[in-house]
Specification:
- By secondary structure, the chain is an alpha+beta fold.
- It folds into 2 domains: about 130 residues, no CATH class; about 80 residues, Ferrodoxin-fold anticodon-binding domain (Alpha-Beta Plaits, 2-Layer Sandwich).
- The protein has 9 helices and 6 strands; from the N terminus they run ααααββαααβαββαβ.
- The strands form 2 sheets. Strands 4-5-3-6 form a 4-stranded antiparallel beta sheet, with helices on one face. Strands 1-2 form a two-stranded antiparallel ribbon.
- Strand 4 and strand 5 form a beta hairpin.
- Helix 1 runs antiparallel to helix 2, helix 1 runs parallel beside helix 6 and helix 4 runs antiparallel to helix 5.
- It is rod-shaped, with a radius of gyration of 28 Å.
- The N and C termini lie far apart (about 70 Å).
């Protein structure tokens, strides 16, 4: 059986590590913020301490066996209901998966702190923070390049053809996904819908500027 100061130290460490991960979520104004992550981490820590040491007084009793891993396993599966509460469907976008995974990781950190695996708990916290904060700019940059960008061009008929557009697109001509020209009510004027995929915002803006500067183009939106 560990002493009271050791128990207190493990709980405080779990609270500290949980707050570090929770702060990263808090600054992005997610539903599960600092307090939620701290509670999950401290609760997991206490559960595994109770599982490992709370029943020591009945050890040795006939027909009684103790498996401390059982309560830890229930934490791993039971934390799912909290994670599910952070996941939201907005249109065709699923939000909150990262926060749910963070809660699951924080529960594991609490278990590690509760069993005295301090190095593992601290190292996991550092890795989780690196994933949440450090990888986000790289992920955002990739998504920016991967998203589809669309244009609606109003121009004099024959002014903008697919060959002209490919010429204006330069090295991104292969990223031209769609080109649809339709006549408008105004004689000799066409509306052209254009889509690009995997094109950086800066290059897309340059194409838009080149189109707006071209003779015969009425509008680009």
């Amino acid at each position: 059986m560990i002493g009271n100061f050791e128990i207190l130290g493990r709980l405080l460490l779990a609270a500290l590590l949980g707050s570090a991960v929770g702060f990263e979520r808090e600054r992005l104004v997610w539903a599960a913020g600092m307090r939620t992550h701290m509670l999950v981490c401290v609760g997991s820590c206490l559960i595994v301490i109770v599982s490992a040491f709370g029943f020591s007084d009945i050890l040795g009793t006939p027909n009684v066996s103790l498996d401390p891993s059982r309560m830890a396993a229930q934490v791993v599966s039971g934390i799912g209901f909290l994670g599910a509460g952070t996941i939201m469907l907005r249109g065709e976008m699923v939000k909150g998966l990262t926060t749910a995974a963070g809660l699951w990781a924080v529960a594991a950190i609490g278990l590690a702190a509760g069993t005295g695996l301090y190095v593992a708990a601290i190292a996991t916290t550092a890795i989780v923070l690196l994933i949440l904060a450090g990888m986000k700019p790289l992920e955002a940059r990739y998504r920016e390049r991967a998203q589809t960008r669309t244009l609606t061009i109003t121009a004099r008929r024959g002014t903008i053809t697919i060959e002209v557009l490919r010429g204006l697109s330069g090295s991104y001509a292969s990223r031209l996904l769609q080109f649809v020209a339709q006549p408008t009510a105004e004689d000799g004027i066409d509306t052209i819908d254009v889509s690009y995929v995997h094109i950086p915002e800066k290059s897309f803006d340059e194409i838009v500027a080149a189109l707006r500067a071209r003779d015969g183009v009425t509008s680009v939106s």
